[in-house]
Amino acid sequence: MKNKNSHITSNPFAQTLLKWFAQNGRDLPWRATKDPYAIWLSEVILQQTRIVQGWEYWLKFMERFPQVKDLAAATEDEVLRLWQGLGYYSRARNLHQAAQQIVKLGRFPSTFDEIKRLKGVGDYTAAAIASIAFNLPVAVVDGNVYRVLARYFGISTPINSTEGKKEFAALAQSLLPIHAPADFNQAMMDFGAIQCKPVLASSATSPNTLQSLFAPLEGCAVCPLSDTCVAYRTSKVNQLPIKLLKVKVKTRRMIYIYIRCKGYIAIRRRASGDIWQGLWEPFLYKDDVDLPKADVATPPTAVFPDFPTEASHIASLKHILTHRIIYAHFYLQETDVRSPLPPEYIWIKEQDIDNYAIPRLIEMMLEKLHN
């Protein structure tokens, strides 16, 4: 639980922020403990995940694996199954491997450098754990922190450039009160999430685009830092922070056949080096960026001569990932004879599919199938 007492500091920025945090900080369950395992778990879950969704998963993991040794002793399938629906499954695999590292070490690592050696832990996560669990004076820098600092100090260096990362990290560290690292870091994150919010996407497409570009956000009117905020003073709130253009999003087309034979279905575990590593899927008939945009009106038999004519269409879905848009078509093939399939496929009882971790796309397919 955050400390509600204000801390004495000669840094006006930190002083104002800590005072704001004491009154407005979010009351989250992982803040009610100093257990580094519980804190680490929350930080990994909340990467690329909204708090309202991550909260539920954190509770499920803490109930199923109350101690790090319980997580380490689990199978990868158990971990992936509990993680199902959160996406970015490499986080779950890294979490599992890191738990085994910790058990092998015999204790939870207690320094920034030690924590950073855990699988899947970078600077931000290591700093969060080090400061919150062990009260070490290490500043965190995430999207919220970038936004607050860029606006308050009027910094135009791109936040995802090498120069920007160094500049913001050094600035955050210089502002950190060494006697209150946990509260300060959590205050920065909460301030960015609650007070100094991102520009709404709709602003860029509104009829008054130019006007909205220079208009301050609603929160600025009641922001305790507005009097000394460079972006607010210079009408650049909606222009900061600056980020370099993202990687181009690619399109991928996939055709699945859900093969059912006398109560059994064929599935395989996806290999490493691609999306959904370690998760299970039905028979993947085609996977190509150049597949035609066939829909229900264009049966695949018209394009692929070897496609089973008895297969019936289940659904066509669009699934968006970070750098990919997947157009997937699903078909059901009922058969009395098990089809010859590549060796990586196995046959399982259809009713046992819940024991296997599957991607959200396949989960949506099954929902269509059973509705």
Automatic annotation (TrEMBL):
Any single GO BP term? base-excision repair
Q: Which residues form the HhH-GPD domain?
A: 45-194
Cofactor, free-text remark: Binds 1 [4Fe-4S] cluster.
SMART domains (alphabetical)? ENDO3c
Q: Which InterPro entries match?
A: DNA_glycosylase (IPR011257), HhH-GPD_domain (IPR003265), HhH_base_excis_C (IPR023170), MIG/MutY (IPR044298), MutY_C (IPR029119), NUDIX_hydrolase-like_dom_sf (IPR015797)
Q: Short name of one Pfam family for this protein? A: HhH-GPD
The record's keywords, sorted A to Z, are: 4Fe-4S, DNA damage, DNA repair, Glycosidase, Hydrolase, Iron, Iron-sulfur, Metal-binding
Superkingdom of origin organism = Bacteria
Report the EC code(s) recorded for this entry.
3.2.2.31
Q: One MF term in GO for this entry?
A: 4 iron, 4 sulfur cluster binding
**Protein name (Swiss-Prot/TrEMBL):** Adenine DNA glycosylase
Q: Which organism is it from?
A: Hoylesella saccharolytica F0055
Specify the taxonomic lineage: Bacteria, Pseudomonadati, Bacteroidota, Bacteroidia, Bacteroidales
